[in-house]
From TrEMBL:
PANTHER family: B-CELL RECEPTOR CD22-RELATED, VASCULAR CELL ADHESION MOLECULE 1. Residues 122-210, 215-296, 301-382, 387-467 form the Ig-like domain. Pfam families: Ig_2, Ig_3. The lineage of its organism: Eukaryota, Metazoa, Chordata, Craniata, Vertebrata. This is Ig-like domain-containing protein. Gene3D superfamilies: Immunoglobulins.
């Protein structure tokens, strides 16, 4: 820094000496602006009248009194060095410049003749400055901002370097001593300082730039993480880095608002709480929504039901298929079919080809997933079939006494139950009676025909012998 400040050449002062030759002290610069803490060089050349021998040279402060040697001043102990050479160049090296060093410094020459001495007055005026960042305290995102590196005096041909959070800025527009932030964003917030080339260690004090901006980086987290099982409790938390800080949070399930505040809790979560949740953050400058958080509530099977195809009446010999439905999560993959309490099949469907009457009964489906199992309500299968196993009973049994009556009763297991019975006597083509029972008046062999909507069946003939009827070839008991 000090070397860079020593390039200008100013006019010097000349005075005639007693020996007819001129004294002269020429300073390369008569005013220097230096950074506090830097090292400064003050340079020049001198001449003296011929015939004199220089015995001593030193630098001193011009205070209006006799110049005293700086190197002997306790305030400059260890901080000053003097240099001269045979070509009558001289210099002062002043290290660790302080604010109290703001003085005029002059070069003093003493010769072998007591009265022949010289002081280069006026000398070099030293001014000391520190770097200071002048900038707004706060700016709104989208605006522009200018940061200025200020000094109290003019440095010689400085190159300004800017730092953000301690790191050099290389991608921003720097013009002279000004840093220009075009279209400020939240990323521009931080601590700024400046320095000049050659003295990067002498930075300004840091200036904190705050940027106001609407919410951004809005995100939602869930606790506890991992699988969510029905009946547990979860808490959603919204995070956002808006400035000023976000104080208004609104929670949505889909497009429906469901809550307010930084957190949203769902105690005893149910399957119907599954869905997409978002958080909307708002501050004075705007609002923004988070991306969706998908809540998938796991639960054991529920709403287990059984359907049958084809629907309607089921007739013996037809085929039916039972289908089990359940909305468990994870989806049900294990289905077990029961007739009563007896397992009869596996799979989402259960088919009964060529159904028989013995297939009638109560059917249920048991659905199972990783979280549990549940049974459906009963599905009643009622198989319709024509009469079968038709039989006739006679009353009274045993001997039939002359003059008594005989009753024949027909039984059948058809479904629907048989309500239409017709009685026939062997050898005759016309029915001899109808109804569940018949009392014959003549001896002979009788049979019953049972009929429902699905068919008919005749019983085996039953012989009836009535006493006292001699015209029949039956024996009296």
């Amino acid at each position: 820094m000090g070397c860079r400040l020593c390039n200008q050449l100013f006019h010097a002062s000349y005075v005639s000496g007693a020996f007819g030759t001129e004294w002269s002290v020429k300073y390369n610069q008569q005013e220097i602006c230096a950074l506090k803490g830097s090292t400064v060089f003050m340079n020049g050349t001198f001449t003296h009248p011929e015939g004199l021998t220089v015995k001593e040279t030193f630098w001193g402060k011009h205070t209006g009194e006799e110049l005293t040697d700086l190197s002997k001043d306790p305030d400059y102990s260890g901080r000053v060095e003097f240099f001269t050479d045979d070509q009558k160049h001289f210099s002062l090296k002043l290290s660790d410049v302080m604010k109290k060093d703001e003085h005029q410094f002059c070069f003093r020459i003493k010769t072998n003749v007591e009265k022949e001495r010289w002081a280069g007055v006026p000398g070099v005026q030293l001014r000391v400055t520190e770097l200071h960042v002048e900038a707004p305290e706060e700016v709104t995102e989208g605006q522009t901002a200018d940061l200025t590196c200020k000094t109290t005096c003019s440095l010689t041909d400085p190159t300004f370097i800017w730092y953000k959070n301690g790191r050099p800025l290389t991608t921003k527009t720097i013009k002279n001593n000004q840093l220009h932030l075009q279209t400020v964003s939240s990323e521009d917030a931080g601590s700024y300082s400046c320095a000049v080339g050659g003295s990067q260690h002498l930075r300004s004090t840091a200036h904190s730039l705050r940027v106001r901006y609407p919410p951004k980086s809005v995100s939602v987290s869930i606790s506890p993480s991992g699988e969510i099982v029905e009946g547990s409790s979860v808490t959603l938390t919204c995070s956002s880095d808006g400035n000023p800080p976000v104080k208004m949070y609104t929670w949505f399930k889909g497009s429906t608002p469901v809550g307010e505040g930084k957190t949203y809790s769902i105690p005893n979560i149910r399957s119907e709480d599954s869905g997409e949740y978002t958080c909307q953050s708002r501050n004075d400058l705007g609002e923004r929504r988070s991306t969706d958080l998908q809540i998938n509530v796991l639960y054991p099977p529920k709403s287990v039901s059984v359907s049958i195809s084809p629907s309607g009446e089921i007739v013996e010999g037809s085929s039916v298929t039972l289908t089990c439905s359940s909305d468990g999560n994870p989806p049900v993959k294990i289905y077990t079919w029961f007739k009563g309490s007896t397992p009869v099949g596996e799979g989402k469907t259960y088919s009964i080809p060529n159904i028989r009457s013995e297939d009638s009964g109560n059917y249920t489906c048991q659905s199972r997933n990783d979280l549990g199992e549940r049974r459906s309500t009963d599905l009643q299968i009622n198989v319709l079939y024509p009469p079968k196993s038709v039989s006739v009973s006679i009353s009274p049994s045993g001997e039939i006494v002359e003059g008594s009556s005989v009753t024949l009763t027909c039984s059948s297991d058809g479904n629907p139950p048989v309500k239409n019975y017709t009685w026939f006597k062997e050898g005759e083509t016309s029915p001899v009676g109808s109804g569940h029972s018949h009392s014959p008046l003549q001896s002979g062999s009788y049979y019953c025909e049972a009929q429902n909507e699905h068919g008919s069946l005749r019983s085996a003939p039953v012989p009836v012998v009535l006493s006292g009827e001699t015209h029949f070839n039956y024996f009296h008991s």
